[in-house]
């Protein structure tokens, strides 16, 4: 395990652990004029071993559909998922089962995602009922259960309790232990702390951080809370209406956003700054995200963008790298320049654009 | 006391910024459960001033929403105000009967709830629901109330109000529904607006819009705003003063900048340390150990004793009262004066 963990800080390995290319998922909605809902539109992303990819975006942008597709709970319409070079969508039977072991998920709501009729121990050991070869003997399973509960900070003696006897933070620990039960390489965390109180949230974030260091597992961390993502992620992908509009390292995306949506998102998120004397001004976007049943032509963000011009309505912007780093990619015809000054004026009012790019304290 | 119509239509004496609008003193709320009576809100006191925002900050179950509901007179039948006064513009609301309260709900006090979809009635158009306040309090006709409703919708930034006034709540987006709810709350120009987690269900870009609307409305009418939230960053940006609640008790109050800049209560300090803001990637956050006590297990003595790093014997025996700290702050901790919570750094 230690050699795996050694890669975790570099982020980029030669072959990404998980690589997604052109992933598209449409849903057909009955009884509507235009009845195709494009939830994912040609998504590209990759995750290295031991790395954390943060996935941010507002509700309805396709974050959770992406998570479900990565777990093969949804069949994509187009595109490929490569796991260490092989495509799991061609697999069947035992091979598929073996693949599924490697990608696991932690769900958002620890109150709804645990079966109230099962004990904590039963919930954590349930994956072994399907993957029978992993811990074939009763004794091995019991030993592993105890180990898992200790890893996530639960008392093994509580294995017989039912979920409702635990607090919210402890329940999420049960969810994490269940995800770890099959020793996965990737865990998809779908809003793992958003249902928790702040003081408990910090405990769970520390646990996730600790587990990654010890086990070298990669995380795809989905959240709408930017301060949490900034804390946990090595790289960040920003989603808007089914597309990834910007990716880069956490530092790049947070401190030098190139896509206007990223800039607006960063700016809209309240900041805990008690040293500042003047109230922080910010970009307030007009309107809300359009319906994915009827996305705008061209650039999907143009209806709310203060930089939008004619070309944005006719031509979807291609993914373009930043001049200083090819890994910092944004899909915008008019990306915010590296000197950090978004253009002023237009329908939205960046009343004080300088603050936007000042590093958070 | 004036009649309904007079109260609502009489020209409102203009509020001057900073004057006290609401004074809550020693508020107790009990909940009757099969297990016995639980104290959900204990001896809570705070003030809200015209043109200012007071934040009630706390984690889930700390009693902040229960406090708001008690002030608004909207407690569930199993909960009762068992002590204290809620004085709004000279009248103790807690002493009124539900019927007497009616004339204050709307003209004097408005409330915005967290989840607009459940707060709005799905079978009436938004125009009907917005106009209801004018029909009840000002005796307007249906037609006149609809005109008022359209005016209100325009005021809170809903596009094409003339055509949308006949739409049902489900035909609006989340942000627009929240705007409608705010419009309902401010329809009769209340002195006090209680906003109970008004943006928790919304995305950040929409949250920014709604908070701006609330700010603009407050500036316009000089109403006092009580913002109930668990989001420290939102408090830092939106509120003037803050009351931090824990397990039904207020543990610290004061101007936001002072409280967040140098917290005196270990809980406030712990909350601020739990925010993943200025810690580098991969570094551990300073979390608070354990979780808040359940209502039926609130200990004797200090409510925070089980999680407090400064706990001593006295904390287990005597519950600290909310004592003045400097000129405009209060804190309920035995060790707030003798030891700055910075000592926690070494714990």
TrEMBL record, chain A:
GO terms for biological process: peptide transport; transmembrane transport. Gene3D superfamilies: P-loop containing nucleotide triphosphate hydrolases. Transmembrane segments: none annotated. Keywords: ATP-binding, Nucleotide-binding, Transport. The keyword ATP-binding applies. InterPro entries: AAA+_ATPase, ABC_transp_ATP-bind, ABC_transporter-like_ATP-bd, ABC_transporter-like_CS, Oligopep_ABC_C, P-loop_NTPase. It comes from the Bacteria. GO terms for molecular function: ATP binding; ATP hydrolysis activity. PROSITE patterns: ABC_TRANSPORTER_1 (PS00211), ABC_TRANSPORTER_2 (PS50893). PANTHER family: D,D-DIPEPTIDE TRANSPORT ATP-BINDING PROTEIN DDPF-RELATED (PTHR43776:SF7), TRANSPORT ATP-BINDING PROTEIN (PTHR43776). Belongs to the ABC transporter superfamily. This is ATP-binding cassette domain-containing protein. It comes from Cryobacterium luteum.
Automatic annotation (TrEMBL), chain B:
The keyword Acyltransferase does not apply. SMART domains: AAA. Pfam families: ABC_tran, oligo_HPY. It is found in: Cell membrane. It is a peripheral membrane protein. PROSITE patterns: ABC_TRANSPORTER_1 (PS00211), ABC_TRANSPORTER_2 (PS50893). Gene3D superfamilies: P-loop containing nucleotide triphosphate hydrolases. One of its GO terms (cellular component) is plasma membrane. GO terms for biological process: peptide transport. One of its GO terms (molecular function) is ATP hydrolysis activity. InterPro entries: AAA+_ATPase (IPR003593), ABC_Ni/Peptide_Import (IPR050388), ABC_transporter-like_ATP-bd (IPR003439), ABC_transporter-like_CS (IPR017871), Oligopep_ABC_C (IPR013563), P-loop_NTPase (IPR027417). Keywords: ATP-binding, Cell membrane, Membrane, Nucleotide-binding, Transport. The keyword rRNA-binding does not apply. PANTHER family: DIPEPTIDE TRANSPORT ATP-BINDING PROTEIN DPPD, OLIGOPEPTIDE TRANSPORT ATP-BINDING PROTEIN APPD. Belongs to the ABC transporter superfamily. This is ABC transporter ATP-binding protein. It comes from Cryobacterium luteum. The lineage of its organism: Bacteria, Bacillati, Actinomycetota, Actinomycetes, Micrococcales.
């Amino acid at each position: 395990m230690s050699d795996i963990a050694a890669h975790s800080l570099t982020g980029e390995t030669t072959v990404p652990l998980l690589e997604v290319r052109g992933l598209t998922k449409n849903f057909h909605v009955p009884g509507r004029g235009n009845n195709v809902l494009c939830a994912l539109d040609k998504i590209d992303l990759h995750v290295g071993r031991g790395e954390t990819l943060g996935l941010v975006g507002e509700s309805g942008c396709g974050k959770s559909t992406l998570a479900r597709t990565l777990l093969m709970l949804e069949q994509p319409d187009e595109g490929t998922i490569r796991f260490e070079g092989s495509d799991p969508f061609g697999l069947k039977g035992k091979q598929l089962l073996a693949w599924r072991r490697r990608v696991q998920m932690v769900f958002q709501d620890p109150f709804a995602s645990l079966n109230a009729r099962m004990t904590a121990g039963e919930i954590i050991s349930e994956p072994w009922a399907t993957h029978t070869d992993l811990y074939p003997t009763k004794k091995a399973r019991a030993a592993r259960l105890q180990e898992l509960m200790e890893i996530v900070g639960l008392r093994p003696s509580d294995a017989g309790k039912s979920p409702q006897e635990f607090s919210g933070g402890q329940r999420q620990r049960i969810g994490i232990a269940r995800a770890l039960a099959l020793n996965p390489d990737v865990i998809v965390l779908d809003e793992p702390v958003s249902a928790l109180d702040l003081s408990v949230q910090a405990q769970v974030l520390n646990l996730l951080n600790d587990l990654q260091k010890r086990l070298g597992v990669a995380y795809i961390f989905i959240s709408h809370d930017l301060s949490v993502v900034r804390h946990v992620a090595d790289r960040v992908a920003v989603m808007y209406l089914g597309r990834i509009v910007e990716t880069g390292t956490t530092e790049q995306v947070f401190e030098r956003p190139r896509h206007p949506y990223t800039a607006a998102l960063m700016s809209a998120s309240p900041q805990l700054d008690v040293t500042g004397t003047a109230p922080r001004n910010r970009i307030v976007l007009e309107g809300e995200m359009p319906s994915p049943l009827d996305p705008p032509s061209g650039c999907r963000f143009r209806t709310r963008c203060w930089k939008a011009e004619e070309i944005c309505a006719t031509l979807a912007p291609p993914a373009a790298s930043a001049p200083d780093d090819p890994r910092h990619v944004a899909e915008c015809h008019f990306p915010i320049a590296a000197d950090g000054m978004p253009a002023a004026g237009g329908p939205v009012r960046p009343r004080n654009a300088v603050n936007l790019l000042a590093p958070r304290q | 006391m004036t009649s309904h119509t007079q109260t609502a239509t009489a020209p409102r004496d203009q509020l001057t910024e900073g004057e006290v609008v609401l004074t809550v003193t020693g508020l107790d709320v009990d909940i009757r459960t099969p297990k016995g009576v639980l104290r959900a809100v204990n001896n809570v006191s705070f003030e809200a001033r015209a043109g200012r925002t007071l934040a009630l900050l706390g984690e889930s179950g700390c009693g902040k929403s229960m406090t708001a509901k008690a002030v608004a007179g909207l407690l569930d039948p199993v909960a009762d105000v068992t002590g204290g006064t809620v004085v709004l513009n000279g009248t103790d609301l807690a002493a009124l009967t539900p019927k007497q309260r009616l004339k204050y709900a709307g003209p004097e006090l408005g409330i915005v709830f967290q989840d607009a979809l459940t707060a709005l009635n799905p079978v009436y158009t938004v125009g009907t629901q917005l106009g209801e306040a004018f029909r009840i309090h000002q005796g307007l006709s249906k037609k006149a109330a609809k005109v008022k409703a359209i005016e209100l919708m325009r005021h809170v930034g809903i596009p094409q109000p003339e055509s949308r006034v006949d739409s049902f709540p489900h035909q609006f987006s989340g942000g627009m529904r929240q705007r409608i709810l705010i419009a309902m709350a401010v329809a009769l120009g209340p002195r006090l607006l209680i906003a109970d987690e008004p943006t928790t269900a919304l995305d950040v870009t929409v949250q920014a819009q709604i908070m701006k609307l609330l700010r603009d409305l407050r500036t316009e009418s000089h109403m006092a705003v009580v913002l109930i939230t668990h989001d420290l960053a939102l408090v830092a940006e939106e509120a003037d003063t803050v009351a931090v609640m824990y397990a039904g008790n207020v543990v610290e109050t004061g101007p936001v900048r002072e409280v967040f800049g140098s917290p005196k209560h270990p809980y406030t300090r712990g909350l601020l340390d739990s925010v993943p803001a200025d810690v580098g990637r991969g570094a551990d956050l300073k979390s608070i150990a354990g979780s808040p006590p359940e209502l039926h297990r609130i200990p004797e003595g200090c409510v925070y004793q089980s999680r407090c790093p400064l706990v001593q014997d006295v904390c287990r025996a005597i519950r600290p009262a909310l004592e003045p700290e400097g000129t405009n702050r209060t804190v309920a901790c035995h060790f707030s004066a003798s030891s700055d919570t910075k000592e926690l750094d070494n714990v």
